[in-house]
Amino acid sequence: MSGTSTSPMNLTLRIWRQSGPASDGSMVTYEVKDVSPDMSFLEMLDTLNEDLIVRGEEPVAFDHDCREGICGACGMVINGDAHGPERTTTCQLHMRHFADGDTIDIEPWRASAFPVVKDLVVDRSAFDRVIGAGGYVGVPTGSAPEAHATPVPKPVADAAFEHAECIGCGACVAACPNGAAMLFTSAKVNHLNALPQGAPERESRVLDMVGQMDEEGFGGCTLAGECATACPKGIPLFSISAMNREYLRAARKGGRPAG
Ligand code: FES
After folding, report:
1. What would the 3-class secondary structure string for the chain be?
2. What is the mean pLDDT of each run of 10 residues along the chain (259 residues)?
3. Mutation to probe ligand 1, out of 74, 76, 78 (largest number of atoms < 8 A from CB)
4. What are the pLDDT digits (tens) for 11-37?
5. What end-to-end distance do the CA atoms of the chain give, in Å?
6. Which pLDDT tens digit goes with each residue over 77-100?
7. 202 C-beta neighbours (distance < 10 Å), count
8. What is the model's pLDDT at position 145?
């Protein structure tokens, strides 16, 4: 990136192309012309794909859904940064952050727990399995409880909401030098463990989600902090230490041995 542009730009893209999970991949160079600075990064890729289709070439596969910064599907590494030069999702990154003549490297998330499916698409189902291990609250059968039956103090609601903002995009894993998923897992654990509704599963939740995270092959956390820097939703680094406290507490209470 070399500046902020207001005029249409011509760009060189070097994009990771990989036809399937078992194939070798490589960077392939493309030129895109007359890119509006008001386009989103994904719209710029749409333009490239339209050109490729017209030329009879295979379009670049990339994940996306909401294009509103909500679903977390659109992750890619842009010039070495998860989601690119702005602290936002790739779909919310605009081309005005690039300049005419720039060369942009575009790669998939790089982490052994996120294998490449095709081109820029990776398999993030490891996150789903971490969520499945404990990202829920028990709901007794019967009629719906009265809304005020379980009061939640404002600071507790705020803390839970701060962690609930995680959209599971995987930028934390991609940015981490160890490929660790501690920021994601801690956001999910702390969101529910903070609330009275999450209290019945408080111990089993943290033990099971951390156990599943380890099983999925994510790396170990050395508190490098890159995860929190890359997170488009601002999940704070202290989320990890809060989860570690929850884990030790649960292990001491007779769950499973810590470490
Ligand atoms: S496409 Fe949903 S967050 Fe980017």
Report:
1. CCCCCCCCEEEEEEEEECCCCCCCCEEEEEEEEEECCCCEHHHHHHHHHHHHHHCCCCCCCCCCCCCCCCCCCCCCEECCEECCCCCCCHHHCEHHHCCCCCEEEEECCCCCCCCEEECCEECCHHHHHHHHHHCCCCCCCCCCCCCCCCCCCHHHHHHHHHHHCCCCCCHHHHHCCCCECHHHHHHHHHHHHCCHHHHHHHHHHHHHHHHHHHHCCCECCCCCCHHHHHCCCCCCCHHHHHHHHHHHHHHHCCCCCCC
2. 73 98 97 97 98 98 97 97 97 97 97 97 98 90 82 94 97 97 98 94 96 96 96 97 96 66
3. 74
4. 999 999 999 999 999 999 999 999 999
5. 42
6. 999 999 999 999 999 999 999 999
7. 19
8. 78
Instruction: Report the nearest atom of ligand 1 relative to the CA of 63.
Output: 1
Residue 88: which residues within 8 A CB-CB, separation 6 or more? Answer: 69, 232
179: which 2 tokens?
Answer: 């490929």
pTM above 0.85, yes or no: yes
- Cα 137 off chain centre by: 23
* Pocket lining: 69 vs ligand 1, CB cutoff 6 Å: yes
pLDDT value of residue 138: 84
Residue 171 in contact with ligand 1 by CB distance below 6 A? no
Tokens of 253: 């209470």
